[in-house]
Amino acid sequence: MTLTPVEAAPASRLIVDLDAVAANWRHLNALAAPGRAAAVVKANAYGLGAVPVVRRLLRESVRHFFVARLEEALALRPEVPPEVMIAVLNSLCPGEETVAAEAGLVPVLNDLGAIERWCAVARARGERLPAILQLDTGMNRLGLGYREIEHVAQDATPLEAIDLRFVMTHLVSAESADDPRNAEQVRLFHARRGLLPPIPTSIANSSGIFLGSLAASDLARPGAALYGLNPTPGRPNPMRPVVTVEARILQLRDIEAGETVGYNATWRAERASRIATVAAGYADGYQRDLSNRGVGWLAGRRVQIVGRVSMDLVTVDVTDVPEAAPGAVVQLIGPDIPPDEVAAAAGTNGYEILTALGAARHQRVYLGAA
User: Fold this and answer.
1) Which are the catalytic amino acids?
2) pLDDT (mean) for 253-275
3) CB of 142 closer than 8 Å to CB of 136
4) CATH number for 157
């Protein structure tokens, strides 16, 4: 017997508006002038799909991309023309240098050992290999500290084997425009880069771009703002929404006042209620911390998540939504429930909300794809 495939509506969908990503980049690039904006596409473009995002941004003439790890860069290299930069923010683990050089990648060199290893590969290949040098100015995470910068300044011979494209730093509190650490970091950065040969600079992340001239540089590195997260907390979001997550109602159940819903009976109905069971859960990136705290959007109304978010299901109070029916779509993240709002309800940030979608089971739909 031959089985005929059945076209069925997906239980849940992740919709990514690539045209909105492109519009957000254009806005950020204009703000970064006279410098230019790169695009940070690490963590699979914050969970949304690095390949389709990069393909769309290449149509906008983006010429600088940043990822975190070598494997992310190698996955993108076939999509990106050789003259377009793919930089690896976390640098390279020892032993990865030859692979990176052969792929034409640009490591961010964060310590003296990384500089020495990259120089050794450059000399072995008989060519100056491109790199970015990171100076730590207060994050105390990655980058050369002051003593290491002094060491390089006293003997810059190793740098002669490297084609340094940029010198960069990373801001600690750029989303807080009035935080004095922003100005102090920029001051330290310029003082320390002054010990080195003249090199183009890269300072601002998404929020740093909105600090204006304070964090201006030759290359800004927006990430979160590209994907619709608000780079200016406490103010209206200047970015276009990018992400929508929607899931279908599987079943409706009428319960009496006093009955409970979900694992461990964490929600009890105060009135006769209608409960919709929806096809999404924490295996789909909808976090368990949204239990009894998250909201959805159905038929033009907000609806409350009630009971525990489980692996595959959430339950929603739809008592006041007569349009609720099996198969109806509930928006869990999107224009009506922005990811920053979802993050606030979950006690986290929008970055975690988006990256959690990376391994989710949703059908992926890309609007504006080539």
Assistant:
1) 42, 263
2) 97
3) yes
4) 3.20.20.10
